[in-house]
TrEMBL record:
This is HPr domain-containing protein. Residues 2-89 form the HPr domain. GO terms for cellular component: cytoplasm. InterPro entries: HPr (IPR050399), HPr-like (IPR000032), HPr-like_sf (IPR035895). It holds the Pfam family PTS-HPr. The keyword ATP-binding does not apply. SUPFAM superfamilies: HPr-like (SSF55594). The keyword Glycosyltransferase does not apply. One of its GO terms (biological process) is phosphoenolpyruvate-dependent sugar phosphotransferase system. PANTHER family: PHOSPHOCARRIER PROTEIN HPR, PHOSPHOCARRIER PROTEIN NPR.
Amino acid sequence: MVCETEVEIKNADGLHMRPAMQFVDLASQFECEVKVSNPQLTVDGKSIMQMTMLAATQGTKLRITAKGRDAEQAVAALSDLLEQKLVEKPTSE
């Protein structure tokens, strides 16, 4: 089964290392292939190095695609993580 959705990065600091790691940790719990793409690049959603290559800032639209046994659950959980749970206040400098 293949399932996909588009999400917008809401985190004021974008998809930096900490939220990217949370995404990878969650994606790794599912028995399916997870790909994340922006208009220029598609990466493995279970690889921290590849996820950081997306350089996704606040407002970036990403497509999450999962293929495999629990693809639907993976896409639902990962999109919820990006749209709801990773919303942080901007860091103060």
